[in-house]
Structures are given as structure tokens and as C-alpha cells.
Amino acid sequence: MFITLEGLDGSGKTTQAKLLAESLRKQGYEVKLCREPGDTTLGEIIRGLLVNGGPELPVNRYAEMLLFMAARAQLVEEVIRPALDEGQIVISDRYLLSGVVYQGHAGDLDPAEVACIGAYVTDFLQPDCTVILDLDPALAEQRRGKPRDNRERRIPAYFERVRLGYLREATTDPIRRKVVDASGDRDHVSQLVQEAVQRRMQAPLRRAA
Ligand code: TYD
After folding, report:
1. Ligand 1 pocket check for 102: Cβ under 6 Å
2. pTM above 0.85, yes or no
3. Ligand 1 pocket, 10 CB below 6 A?
């Protein structure tokens, strides 16, 4: 089972990914937790370039999308596929939907093209369940509580487009993609996330389209 968590920066997905992993482990599952971009040598270098206060690099929109894709392709082959093959549950903090939404809906690229390239470079590995943590961008900003990284120094309208992009994408695959209201406290949101995942685990798995 491959689960991904998505949402705005500050929506709490990193905390929620950890809480979900803990709760699944308590139920006896083996769980592999990973994040994007990152968790491989290449992925961490790309994170350093694009996210973590790296140099203000001139990166055009295609190059940026492809760098995120490169990190993802490596993560799938090195970490996610092997863990799934061993029967573990994989929880990824962000996956392809981040590219579709940030570079597509909120950025300047065609979301369908980004999705297409992403499907190819991940060898068509789709999450079985994607939990989208939905939150007002103003609240997400307050919650972030740490210095903004390169990408977060963007205008509020950008984050509004990110939010709407996620909501629009959720409607295209309501069985796999679950929107969770992330405005409550940590434990309440964690409960909602667990319920969304349980519902999906009980539903029959559909083959990738
Ligand atoms: P995130 O890991 O949530 O950052 P943090 O560690 O600060 O919580 O995400 C990194 C940033 O990269 C975030 O602003 C979203 C962005 N991003 C994209 O624009 N496209 C992508 O494909 C991915 C995976 C992330």
C-alpha cells in the first residue's frame, strides 16, 4: 500500500505523516516513511538546490519541474518500490501531485503534461491513497513557524492557486484522493487522516488507469 500526504507548506503534512506511520506500526504494519524531494543522495542534493535556502539559482520552469522529477524517479527506484515489494506500507510526504499542483496549477506549466511526465518517470507508480491536507493559506503561513525557504517567498496568490489546484485534483479521483480539513488541532487532524486511510484500505484496490 502506497500512501502520500499532500498540502500547502505549513498544512502539517510532515507531522501527520509521522503520526500516521506510528499508528499503522501500532497496528502491526511495517511502515517506510519518506519525503520528497529527498531521502536519496540525489534527492537531498536536489532539495538543497531547490528548497533549503540554496543559492538563488536561475532555474527555468521546465528545469525546476524536471529536477523535482529526477528526485522522484530516484526515490521510487531506490526506496519506494523496494519497500512495497517487501510488503511494507510506504508513506511519502509529497509525491507527483505536488509537481502537478505547484508547477502546474499554481505555476506556469500544463498540469496534464506534468502528470504525464511524472507517470513516465515513476514507471507509472500511483499512490493507492493520497491524503490532501486542506488549509487556508493564511493559516498555513501562521503555522509554518520557521524561516521561509526559497520557494515559500512567494506571493499569497500563488498559495491560493496551490490550494485550489489540490481541491480540483481531488475531484478527478475521489476514491484515491481524500481531502481532510487540516484546520483542527494535531490529534483531531490525525484522527481524520487515519479514518481516510482506513476507508481506502477497506475499499477494493483498483488497477492503475
Ligand atoms: P516540503 O518538504 O513541504 O518543505 P518543508 O521541508 O519546508 O516542509 O516541500 C518542499 C517545497 O517544494 C514545497 O514548497 C513544495 C515544493 N515542491 C514543488 O514545488 N514541486 C514538487 O514536485 C515537490 C515535491 C515539492
Report:
1. yes
2. yes
3. no
